[in-house]
Amino acid sequence: MDTGVLALMIPIIGVSIPVVAIWAKHQQKMAEIKTDATAQHTAEKAAQYANQVQQLEDRVQVLERIVTDRGYDVATQIEALRDTREVEQQGAGVPLDMPSKEKV
C-alpha cells in the first residue's frame, strides 16, 4: 500500500468509528422500544383473555346453579318442548283448505 493512501485511511477510520458506535446505539434503542411495545401488547392480550375466562366462569356458575336447583326440572321442560313441537308438526286446529259442507 502506498503511504499516501494509508495516511488518508487513518483519519477516515478514526472518524467512522464514532459514527458506527452511534448507529449501533440507535439500533439497540430501537430494539428495546420494539420489545417494550411487544411486551405491552402481550400484557393487554393476557388481560383480555383473563377477562373472557372470568366471564365464562361466571356463566358456567350460573348454569350450574340453574341445573342443580331442586325446583328446576330440566327433563320435564325438555319433554314439554318436544310435545309442543310434535303438535306444531302435526298441525293443530281445522285446516284452511277443508271443503265446506254445503255442496250444490
Structure description:
- There is one protein chain.
- The protein has 104 residues and is mainly alpha-helical.
- Helices cover 80% and strands 0% of the residues.
- The chain is built from two helices and no strands.
- The longest helix is centred in the middle third of the chain and has 66 residues, at 3-68.
- It is rod-shaped and about 110 Å long.
Mean pLDDT: 80
Q: What is the structural class?
A: mainly alpha
Topology order in helix (H) and strand (E) letters:
HH
Ends apart, CA distance between termini: 128 Å
What's the number of extended β-strand segments? Answer: 0
Shape: rod-shaped
What percent strand?
under 5%
State the helix count.
Answer: 2
Oligomer: single chain
Over all CA atoms, what is the radius of gyration? 40 Å
Q: Which regions contain 5 or more consecutive residues with pLDDT less than 50?
A: none
Largest sheet: none
| Helix content class | over 70%
